[in-house]
Design goal:
homodimer, four-stranded antiparallel sheet, alpha+beta
Chain lengths: 398, 398
């Protein structure tokens, strides 16, 4: 089942769920963003607490000292919040109109597009052009897949109404351009720390800038384009269908040569574009034998067992067989730390900063019968060990 | 004469004009931005014309075809304007309040800073930290110099009043952090073309994003920070004093290893920071024997002779001995082309995309008695030849 409606651009047929190793059951339900743990931290007393309030506050109000621990000093929070700043500006731009763009609503900071559409004779050529533009604007990875309504949220969340409201995406969108930005490896080595959250913020800020420029480009060609980060739809299913990587035990996209250190954005469009196909390089089989992320997760929020369709709470999607993270436990730990946590990224053997050729070789071997050897080798070489935040500040000064 | 007021951070004395090869005469006058050719294209009938109006219009309204020439099709203008989009958003954000941020006024898209200042015991350490943050946020080059009021505009330009108004920079700012972003080499190879203007737009968009994040970081440490692009002050004198490069015949900054392919932004701050010192690597002597830019400039806007304090018109600064470009001729050509021109960058022998080690070697030799040989060699190797825009679109697709 390809689940692509009105898509004329895949002559050999669209990529199926099987091609992407998706197991979606008939009782699958589209997700309402109100159930997302971040939204629940606003309306649901089960999640909301003094700690979660203090967590959000730490992003808004700079204080001299939060905790007397390395990585949580004024400069660490100052840098983290500065890294978030550009993404925040777009998120807060229309908060007065109950839009939180990039997080609850798609981005609308656009100029009017062209009144006349550029004629597209080759969706294949057009796809190459779009990928080139995306890289020029800052994307590290780009892939294109068909519009699949299943991954669009059934509802978005309104903070003003404290309730769900319909997603306002137009009809007739046929393609999804997925862009990824790599997060800084050395910052993520310091996780857990407020400092490491800078990598997340800078990633979102880069994402919003690339997405706005690329969507504006599509509009300037006379087509529709809706740029989205965490709002409107799940990103990972599109990224996988667009051939950007595989799904890992920690619930994150793992891309060839880069690993899980990615922020993902997407653009919904009716520009005629050829679609990519999913790839496999042995991630699923590697994650079957590796427990680095689930063992390394302090609140034990990551699945230890096989993929399943069991859910932990209402924040999980119903009807997909996959490794499912307990978002309540995960976010609960963030709130305690007063910053986002990426320990699962730090410890993941796919997240290593070796030279590109060596990572390509490692990833290839990790996809073969040598996977257990590679896993042991990674541990022997100290892969994923934490760098003290003060070392980050001192070491890389130039 | 160092011209630094209240600067406690240079124990060996601030860099003098002599250190930077500046020749500023006693009749030097601070520049009023109203005299800038872009401002004049709004109020001065000597500059404003149907052509200049059409030039600006091409940035705002996407049309299917502006000119029937390779490099000026819908996709070329569409890409250029999309590259400018993020910089435009910040420029237009407060136009209703007569602020055109990044071009006529400094950026104000900031969150409140910290109420308490972080204690700075070592301006030297603090400078290293700021440089590290700047690179993390996207800067390709960073340097720091002291606040020198001479390069701050005497007045800025108000579009609403169509007249000059005082620059609103606060007293007590002691340092200027200069950041540079490299523009795309391959796009600039296609100049003149609307396509090549994408490099300019993307450069500004990167600049605004880095500046906003870095200034927010300084504010989060409890200090003042005003981020500026083309507004408020000339950038090049600060960049030279901050050790980022030398001044070239075409009136642009030439940086070691990169050349003139740079956009420059700056942050005025009172954060205690150690200052860099100017560098020399033989650019002045090379430009003395090279005429690639002045010969290659279609409207002959670039000085053919020696540096002098003669001016062409009111758009030039009075009282500095330097190579001075005729801004009226330069911008007149832009208006005819309906896009900005960077032929002087394309042909400059410092603007070559060789591997880094080879450029380092070349730049070193260009700074010795071999400069004429290096110049001839560059010509023999076809340096600076134009790439047809359609080749750019076809060649680099991946």
């Amino acid at each position: 089942m390809a689940n692509c409606k009105s898509c004329p651009t895949c002559p050999t047929g669209c990529a199926t769920d099987e091609d992407a190793s998706f197991r979606v059951s008939p009782d699958y339900e589209r997700f309402s963003q109100k159930r997302d743990v971040f939204c629940r931290s606003h309306w649901d007393p089960e999640v909301r607490s003094d700690k979660t309030e203090r967590f959000y506050e730490s992003y808004r109000r700079p204080l001299k000292q939060w905790r007397r621990v390395d990585g949580y000093a004024q400069k660490d929070f100052a840098l983290r919040n500065a890294g978030w700043h550009v993404a925040d500006l777009f998120a807060e731009r229309l908060e007065g109109e109950d839009r939180r763009e990039g997080f609850l609503d798609y981005l609308t900071a656009h100029r009017g597009g062209a009144p006349e559409q550029r004629e597209v004779t080759s969706p294949d050529e057009m796809a190459k052009e779009i990928k080139k533009a995306a890289k020029l604007f800052g994307a590290d990875l780009v892939g294109i897949t068909y519009y699949d309504e299943r991954w669009v949220y059934s509802h978005k969340y309104s903070r003003a109404a404290e309730n769900e409201t319909p997603v306002d995406l137009e009809e007739g969108l046929t393609s999804v351009v997925v862009v990824c930005h790599e997060m800084d490896h050395d910052l993520l080595k310091t996780v857990p720390s407020a400092l490491s959250g800078t990598a997340t913020g800078v990633g979102y800020s880069k994402d919003v800038v690339t997405l706005l420029a690329l969507a504006q480009y599509i509009r300037n060609l006379g087509y529709r384009a809706y740029a989205s980060m965490n709002d409107t739809a799940s990103s990972i299913p599109y990224a996988i269908k667009a051939g950007l990587g595989e799904y890992g035990r920690h619930g994150l996209l793992i891309a060839p040569g880069i690993g899980p250190r990615l922020r993902i954005g997407k653009i919904f469009t009716d520009l005629p574009l050829a679609h990519d196909r999913p790839i496999r390089f042995g991630v699923k089989e590697f994650c079957q034998v590796c427990r680095k992320c689930s063992d390394g997760c302090p609140p034990k929020a990551i699945a230890q067992g096989d993929p399943s369709d069991e859910t932990h709470n209402v924040s999980n999607v119903v009807g997909i067989e996959k490794w499912t993270t307990d978002a309540e436990k995960c976010f609960g730990f963030w709130a305690t730390q007063m910053t986002d946590c990426s320990i699962c990224i730090r410890v993941c053997p796919y997240n290593r900063n070796y030279p590109a050729w060596l990572n390509r070789l490692r990833f290839t071997l990790m996809g073969t019968f040598l996977r257990r050897v590679m896993l042991r080798l990674d541990s022997l070489l100290g892969g994923g060990q934490r760098t003290a935040p003060k070392l980050w500040w001192n070491r890389l000064k130039s």
